[in-house]
Amino acid sequence: MHKTVVINAVGLTPGLLGAATPKLRAFASAGKSASINTVLPAVTCSVQATYLTGRYPNEHGIVGNGWYFRDECEIKFWRQSNALIQRPKVWEAARMLDPTCTCANLFWWFNMYSSVDYAATPRPMYPADGRKLPDIYTTPADLRFELQKEFGQFPLFNFWGPNTSIAVSEWIAGAARRIEQRYNPTLTLIYLPHLDYCLQR
User: Fold this and answer.
1) What's the pLDDT tens digit per position in 114-147?
2) What is the pTM of this model?
3) Where are the alpha helices (DSSP H) in 80-189?
4) CATH architecture, range 4-198
5) Domain segments of the chain as ranges
């Protein structure tokens, strides 16, 4: 298998690669880059599941960012269990071809309880007093402590919404470099979220 890094930077178009982005321009020029047509619904969870499986939403089962739970009469958004995706993922297919293939999935959705070797994804803590505290879920579990020791507390409140900023993408990029240095995965999937929301403002 060839070592591969997939950077999911939603909203980063070839037109944005230029003098203001010399490192990205050099990175794209040195390797391969491609634009990808979207699927419908064109929302984070459905699109990422399509990229991870190579299947459309009607096949992989992720048809939106949320589901209506009839028994609870509630809509729940941003579910994270990898078991919700009903088709094999790209790293599982790669392992069928080469059992030595390893994968790091950094902040793509549906990253909890996954079959990847290394994972990091947002997972806030909700203490009994009602607060929401920034945190992450990782595989292996001790990676959580290592990353937050080196890069500080995960900037959850900059991940999405009106406070979205490059700070979260910088944190994730640092974590990706650290995982690359320590584990050297064959396939690394990185989601850099700040452009995703910024272009919607």
Assistant:
1) 999 999 999 999 999 999 999 999 999 999 999 9
2) 0.91
3) 90-97, 143-151, 166-183
4) 3-Layer(aba) Sandwich (3.40)
5) 4-198
